[in-house]
Amino acid sequence: MTIRNLTGPGIGRPRVQKIPGFYGERLIDGVVLKDITLYADERGFLLEVIRMNDNEMKASNIRQIIASYSYPGVIKGWHLHTKQEDRLVCVKGMVKLVLYDYRHNSPTYRQVNEIFMGERYPRAVFIPPGVFHGVKNIGQEIAVVIGMPSLLYDPDNVDEVRVHPLDNDIIPYNWECRME
């Protein structure tokens, strides 16, 4: 069978995961992506979320640990911190974490990363200040994301910039599932 001249809408080169569960040209500068080992036996399983001596994840800077629950299909984002570092781990369900580098002096300025993580792919992600991030629950049940920020939440001085997840002129990203 000969295939010729395949052009037109919807035809193109497929995206390739050079890093499993990750789409992007390269990892955004300063972001750390770490697979987490899941220990399982007949009693259940254990996930070591983070060790406080993990220098790569700057774990010693953690000031608070929060749990964010989201319903299937819900998008929580976009938000950016100017001073705060974030560390995220999805411990229930599956999510798509999307990052957008908004740091004008960064070598990966305007780079987009998609990271898939959760029960089926346990991993931790370190997000430096200046990188927009958002999470979409891509599973069929409630997803739980553990957040470990470097600053205590202060309602009188919130270190956060928010942008609408679907309607904005800053981040060139479509949250829909890409059918390929």
From TrEMBL:
Catalytic activity: dTDP-4-dehydro-6-deoxy-alpha-D-glucose = dTDP-4-dehydro-beta-L-rhamnose
Residues of the signal peptide: none
Top-rank taxon: Bacteria
An annotated GO BP: polysaccharide biosynthetic process
Site-annotated residues for Participates in a stacking interaction with the thymidine ring of dTDP-4-oxo-6-deoxyglucose: Y153
Enzyme superclass (EC): isomerase
Gene Ontology MF: a single term: dTDP-4-dehydrorhamnose 3,5-epimerase activity
InterPro entries listed in its UniProt record: RmlC-like, RmlC-like_jellyroll, RmlC_Cupin_sf
GO cellular component terms given for this protein: cytosol
Enzyme Commission code(s) on record: 5.1.3.13
Main function: Catalyzes the epimerization of the C3' and C5'positions of dTDP-6-deoxy-D-xylo-4-hexulose, forming dTDP-6-deoxy-L-lyxo-4-hexulose.
Protein name in the entry: dTDP-4-dehydrorhamnose 3,5-epimerase
Organism: Thermodesulforhabdus norvegica
